[in-house]
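Posting for a labmate who doesn't have an account.
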Amino acid sequence: LNTAKNKGVLLIPAFSLERTQIILSVIDRMMTTGELPQISVFMDSPLAAKVTKVYTQYPEFLRADIRERLVSGDDPFAFKTLRVTANKESSQAIDSEPGPKVIIAGAGMGHGGRIRHHELRYLGDPTTTLLLVGYQVAGSLGRRLKDGQKKVDIDGREVKVRATIDGIDGFSAHADRD
């Protein structure tokens, strides 16, 4: 909420299969209940977009609550403020959108994918929050940030970390998530 109040950016590095869809459904629920203001949310992952489409096509394989919402026409993966980026140009255009905004992009540990562009762009901004929602393997960018490293190298460029780094371990699929 502080990130939204400060018109900042909430970066969520997420895996495209299951994690992104869970996050979308949580954001949808939080916006519906008013816990989260109606802000722009970008799903910046072509793979996650494809996986999400598969989820909506086969609701019988989903959790009962999500299945019921989909069947009733209330798609938890597609809400008013959600925008899905289809290509590199639309991904980079997110930068020109004013905050507050949420960017969900792969990869979940920051070791590749579109999240690297966003981390490079926003980690130096104190109004940014990086929310780690899964296990971060030792040595990965995500783990180094979680451990408090204040300078990181992203694609050969040094970034001074001024963003708030936070985490929610409950989204992790790893055995130690409890």
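Reply:
Got it, the structure tokens are right above this. Residues 44 and 105 are 5 Å apart (CA to CA).
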